[in-house]
Amino acid sequence: MPSRNATYEPYRAAPEARTAQTRAPEQPQDRFRPDIEGLRAVAVLLVVANHAGLGLVHGGYVGVDVFFVISGFLITLHLFRELQRTGRIGFGAFYGRRIVRLLPASTVVVIATVAAAWTWMSPVQAKAVVFDALSAAAYGINVRLAVLGTDYLSAELEPSPLQHFWSLAVEEQFYFIWPLLLVAAATRRASRRSAAIALTLLGVVSFAVCVWQTGHSQPWAYFGIQARAWELAAGALVALAAERLAKARGTAALTWLGLAAIVAAAVMFDETTRFPGMAALLPVGGAVLVIAGGCAKSPKGAVALLKTPPMQAIGKLSYSWYLWHWPALMLAPHVVGAEHGLGTWAKAAVAAGSLLPAWLSLKLVENRVRFNPVFKRRPRRGLGLGAMLTALACGAAAIFLGLPNEVRGEGTAQDTAQALAQQNAANDAAAEARQLEEARKRLLELIATSAPLTAMPQNLTPPVTAATNDRPQGSKGCLASLDETSIKPALAEGCDKHGDPQGKTTMVLFGDSHTEQWFDAVDAVAKRNHQKLVVLTKSGCTPADAYTIKVNARRAFTECATWREEAFAKIKELKPALVLMSTRTYGDPPVDKAGAVTVGKAEADKAWSQALIRSAKRVQQLGARPVIMQDTPDPRGASVPDCVAAHPAAVQQCALKVATAIYATRKTANEDAAKEAGFTVVDPTPWFCTDTVCPVIIGNALVYRDGSHVTTSYIKLLTPLLQAELKG
Predict the structure, then answer these.
(1) Which residue of 159, 296, 569, 722 has the fewest C-beta atoms within 10 A of its own C-beta?
(2) What are the pLDDT digits (tens) for 246-264?
């Protein structure tokens, strides 16, 4: 999964903010709450420490849950009081106040981040940040991140410097829904009971969705409003009970218990925790206890710690610090040229240093706008400010998109396609074999001469800024998503009608995205051999008879197993002549259906090769000839286009070392097991590497489109070599 971030509830119940309430007498629960200010400090410290990689708080991401509870409490407290007093909610004034509080600082951060990304990040990354900026400005970046998170091909992308805006998007989406629901539920009598019933129903449904989606589509559970609304609803329910809680006794212990629960979650949880799901109950419950217990204002409660000057100071800065710390952490490695990221102490220093722009932002932007009499007297004017600031952020992003986004190369490299093209039509099998051997030799020579390449050529194909989209186009719809469990949607897209539709025999392409990347070459081979081609591929789903951990879900990939069984049933129905199987080389051992590791790492290679051979034997039993394609050299998640764009004059820095790009022990295990079973194995390594290095540019061809997959442009050039390997 992408990295976890936290949010900050930006509404502050500070003394100055109470001037907005002029007609109603001040209620005990409306006074400034130093415990909430201090709770903000606890949450933001946990988040920043987690992002800085401090080991004691691997679960510091639970700060997001604390902030959601605070947000739901404070907003509902003020909305319900207004509803009680007037029988209505002034939506214009409400949203105007939210805009005045949120947008000035966030707009500055968005524009500053885009400018910094354009200056220090590669053109490929900078362009992606601009699109993130547009989503952030419209408070929809959580949806964008959820979509990207469920896309296996995007799963290993570097986190965006604006990724942290997802939580603000969730809050604003809740603020759009909740006031409308509150008015509808409470009626003019402002019934706490009816409001509480509506909140409870909303919370129960949202929590059920959260638990279910955490197990099935974790990015949507993490980023989606539908799975997070229950956390804001929990805080809102406390607000509805605030008057009674203010009269309660013995609540001091609750606040300490709640604070302990939050800290425990931060210490006990880590990246392997299935979150949010059921696990989120611990930090949410902790925040509820702190806020609810604090309504009675007992001096013996956790307020004794939370009201201390350092905690109050950090609490006041928490929104600004939240806005600035994440872009600083994401951009700092690019500024200093740290290819492999910063160390823990360096990240801690950067996070601490971001307090300076946070303080400046608070003093020079937030407070000057927020307390401006123009907006305090007439909050509805904030709507106009919001329109202006949104237009400013989007306009700035559009300007950056219009700037030149090219990476200039030097010189002209030998055209790889021309070097590998057949010189003339072959008249017989012997002539064809000679031409193939000549093409193979030319490729090996081209790889050898490209290995020491330093400058990116001007005639690079595809251009580095377009590499991400250089993927199979003819097989659109044939790569099932992570959540798909059936082959039927792919068949509906015509994935059983490739190759030569009039062919007498059938070939099947079966596996994951590292299989689907070969589509254009396999399709060309099928057409030349007058074979039908059926594409059965699924993101992250190995054809090997084993369970893996689902990307971004932290559980066994059961969807893969279900889909794989349907694929085998289809292969049985098709009775193909050949099934070409390939799979990404998984570094971790297989797991069982419960997600538990079944073998040690030392035995992983043997376990994986055996699982692959089991599937190959099953294919054979169905009457087809199985051919196993070894994996392509692996950049291991390091985006090659980004690297080339960042180092156009020193592309050798991006080259892959054979020692790490090729999983030698797995490769050998596969070969030995296949040889013993009598199966054909195709090893593409010589088409990519010398004995020591795998250049990322061969001739004028860019080899990789991301940190894992080969460009379709290069795959097409390998068609004659693959054709020869598939001959039975």
Answers:
(1) 569
(2) 998 888 999 999 999 999 9
